[in-house]
TrEMBL record:
One of its GO terms (biological process) is thiamine biosynthetic process. It comes from the Bacteria. InterPro entries: NMT1/THI5, SsuA/THI5. This is Putative thiamine biosynthesis protein. Residues 1-21 form the signal peptide. The keyword Signal applies.
Length: 329
């Protein structure tokens, strides 16, 4: 009897959900979702603004609100369900996955295919390679994973990590910082590296992925709330369909895409946005088969490196924390 009742309820729910879907389609009502950025708008986000400006979200039946991040980033808002999607990073979200109660979010797309972050310094200051950081000042976020990466690249290059003077600081203007008492800053080249060029400041830069391939982790990534995505598989796929189209447009049309970002965020430096967009356009898809895809071996390899280095409290199982199943075919 219980089986009959359950079957009846399941059929009834299916009919009800189908009816709701049909009514929604007939009324033209859009599915409203929000996405929390990781930082103030920049060229990492251009594809999102393109998707919004070009009507790609609306084509998919979705209305997306792009939200500025609170202090502490997007992870907690997405995990709580207050926002359906957000932008995070594979390294910073690792502690939240390495737990008996992991944060209920999943990475569903890589915005950039490769890690473009590294260390920038004034040219001629001896830091064109990691060993040069020995005896210099470094602006640190004071995060264990960050320090472990610095230690790894410096020592692998024969440098003295212990002699680096760590200065706790969240640098918002790299050029100003490098002209003060800070010798080295961790930057994402597409923004701060290009900003230095635009301002005519000569710099040295080395990327972490060029020192050790295991540091070619995914940064930044789009995350989604697990409960929402499980209950709204079609909407999640539609969301990523539009986002993917936005990034493909930005890759093929960097100047037009830059204009769209500037329209959405007119406070940004025009020359910086234009030059950054030209540089980053090739990085969205890079050598991947399609935009957004996450390679399991690279994902797992970085988390194994964290575990082997005792940088997370619990081992993150292979394949945990990401999926490619919502990406367009």
């Amino acid at each position: 009897m219980k089986k009959i009742i359950s079957a009846f309820l399941a059929i009834a729910m299916t009919i009800s959900m189908s009816a709701c879907g049909s009514e929604k389609e007939k009324s033209g009502e859009l599915e409203k979702v929000s996405l929390v950025l990781d930082w103030t708008p920049n060229t990492n986000h251009t594809g999102l603004y393109v998707a919004q400006e070009k009507g790609y979200f609306e084509e998919q039946g979705i209305e997306v609100e792009i939200v500025q991040p609170p202090e502490g980033g997007a992870d907690s808002l997405v995990a709580s369900g207050k926002s359906q999607f957000g932008i995070s990073f594979q390294d910073t979200i690792a502690p939240a996955f390495a737990s008996d109660s992991p944060l209920p979010v999943t990475a569903i797309a890589a915005i950039l295919q490769h890690n473009t972050s590294g260390i920038i310094s004034l040219k001629g200051n001896g830091m064109d390679t990691p060993s040069g950081m020995g005896g210099k000042t470094y602006a640190t976020w004071d995060v264990p994973v960050e320090k472990a990466i610095i230690k790894s690249v410096v020592e692998s290059d024969g440098g003295d990590y212990e002699s680096i003077e760590m200065v706790p600081s969240t640098v918002t203007d790299v050029v100003t910082a490098l002209k003060s008492d800070i010798d080295a800053v961790w930057v994402y080249y597409a923004w701060d590296g290009i900003a230095s060029k635009v301002k005519g400041v000569e710099t040295d830069f080395f990327a972490f992925k060029d020192i050790d391939p295991v540091l070619d982790y995914y940064s930044p990534i789009i995350i989604g709330n697990n409960s929402y995505m499980e209950s709204n598989e079609a909407e999640t796929k539609s969301f990523l369909e539009a986002v993917s189209k936005g990034y493909e447009y930005a890759a093929e049309n960097p100047e037009e895409a830059a204009e769209i970002l500037l329209k959405a965020s007119p406070e940004l430096d025009r020359e910086l946005v234009m030059e950054s967009q030209k540089w980053i356009a090739k990085e969205y898809k890079s050598d991947a088969e399609k935009w957004g895809v996450i390679d399991k071996s690279r994902w797992d390899g970085f988390y194994k490196w964290l575990w082997d280095g005792e940088l997370v409290e619990k081992e993150i199982s292979p394949g945990f924390g990401f999926t490619n199943e919502y990406l367009p075919e």
